[in-house]
Amino acid sequence: MNTFERVALQRGYKYIAGVDEAGRGPLAGPVVAAAVVLPPGYSNPEINDSKQLSAGKREALYERIKQDALSVGLGVVEAAVIDEVNILQATLMAMRDAVQELSISPDYILIDGKNTIPLDETIPQEAIIKGDSLSVSVAAASIIAKVSRDMIMDLYHRQFPQYNFLKNKGYGTAEHRSAIKQYGVCKIHRRSFHVKDHTGAPQTYDLFKDD
What is the pTM of this model? Predict the structure, then answer.
């Protein structure tokens, strides 16, 4: 899990940031990205792609990473902006903000996926397909992003309990879709995301109608 970091260190880079996001696919809520700079040579065999971990394990590792990391940055882009610029651009914006929130300027960046981050400054970057299962820094970022987004959605649940964001975190579960049909959409729903039923056919409601 630290091969990419080790290679970067051997090339003379010192502060290596792993970057990942959570929340590209939900019908509601923000997309959240995290950037994590771990100490050189850092290893923790428990750190893995956040999707492969239980909620309890993620939360425990979230605290451990926050303690061990040299720096952690977070970027949050809300639903209204996602609708305006599209989810890919919103994700890249969140990643850029996360990197810029770091208290240590990274000299190398490892990113989950196939896209690099548009930054004002020139920093070498490496996009890694399935990086959250191949790089400890990216995996750490995936955990920070996921737990942070879950916390945000828990807060939104208090404002909009009828959608049960506490459970679904904004994803398009059957319960969530049923709540949209009953109550309509709220301010954190992504109106640019079409809602379909389990067969793939459009529902009789959508996310474009007025609240």
Answer: 0.92
